[in-house]
Amino acid sequence: MNIAVAQSGGPTCAINASLVGVFREAMKHSTIDAIFGSINGIEGIVHDHLINLKTLIRSGYDMDLLRQTPSTVLGSCRYKLPDENEDSSVYKTIAKVLEHRKIGAFFYIGGNDSMDTVQKLSAYFTKISLDVKVIGIPKTIDNDLCVTDHTPGFGSAAKYVATTMQEIIRDSSVYSIPSVTIVEIMGRHAGWLTASSAVLHAYGEPAPHLVYVPEAHFSEKCFLRDVEQEMAKHKAVIIAVSEGIAVPEGVQSGMVDNFGHKYLSGIGKYLEQLVRNKIGCKVRSIELNVMQRCSSHLCSKTDIDEAEQIGAAGVKCALHGETGRVMVFRRVHNNPYTIVMEPADASQIANREKFLPREFLTPSGNNISDSAMPYFLPLIQGELHLAMEGGIPKHFTIQESILK
């Protein structure tokens, strides 16, 4: 049979490593012939825009280079499949393309919304008795997928956030004037990535002095009080804040994507102005923005290795005859850090979110507790020995003409 693999949702440092995992494992099995890459996620299946990855990935060096390359080499999408009972036309198109290409297994690398696609396609194929296995491979820097201990992409993003926070701390500490620095970090409903900035506490760094996540109630009054209390103790106060904390209407754009998710940005600037008006000290805000997603020069080797391993596990799962499944990590031990990979039903993961446990927050809800450290620290360990060119990391790319 042939297989197909696609990437979807927001870019990460590790999503291409999962693609390598699928490809490398598939190459080991004589029962698998062509390995198709779908351009721009499920849209590539819909439009029959597939490329044979064997013509692009020709050596172990190519695989290693792709493994260290951030973002989605096949392109991405935010395409929401309709309810099959309301509109089955796109499902029929997908089934026709897969049959025509003799594809017996489809692997979708993505987050919450991508697992919705896995669940819907698997259910439809079962309904029409089409023998195509559909397997989800998790990825998201938000770390908000249910069932799995963590998601590929999160460890590298967390490492970037903590490292950048450390550099901001060093920069802010050189002046004699009291100051407040507010760092806005991605996280719509779940504060995993923002919370990861607090791993610096495990190494004796008191900053970030305040951490605000969507899981804790936020009020401007308490925020200002917290800032003033920290200013009495520290010359330069550093604050980490999730983009998705509750703020007055109108701070963010109000625009939404195809899945109904709001485009969030602006909380850092809003709080900067609040501090300036109410406290009157030197204050600035920094939005890490897309840099936290694809900074492969600071990636976690643990993250990249696990991303490849879970991609390979997805292929084995499909070959064992399973479908409608998402590969997940189950943590066995913190010390030594040990995980196993296993399949879970897509219905347990699609359209659901995993939030920070309450014990990871301090009682006041404005920082991260020490009990969170054993969870975060193993995920940021290790460094890749990157292939370099001209003093910068070398990336694996596909010609733009192929992607059109």
Short structural description:
The chain has 404 residues and is α/β, with parallel strands linked by helices. The chain has helices spanning 15-26, 42-46, 60-67, 89-100, 112-127, 154-172, 192-196, 220-231, 267-278, 291-294, 301-319, 373-376, 400-403, and strands at 2-7, 35-38, 50-52, 103-110, 133-138, 179-185, 210-212, 236-242, 282-287, 325-334, 337-345, 388-389, 392-393. The chain starts with a strand and ends with a helix.
Can you walk through the features of this model?
- With 404 residues, the protein is α/β, with parallel strands linked by helices.
- Helix 1 (15-26) runs antiparallel to helix 3 (60-67) and helix 1 (15-26) crosses helix 11.
- The model has no long low-confidence stretch (mean pLDDT 94).
- The relative contact order is 0.18.
- The protein is elongated.
- Helices cover 33% and strands 18% of the residues.
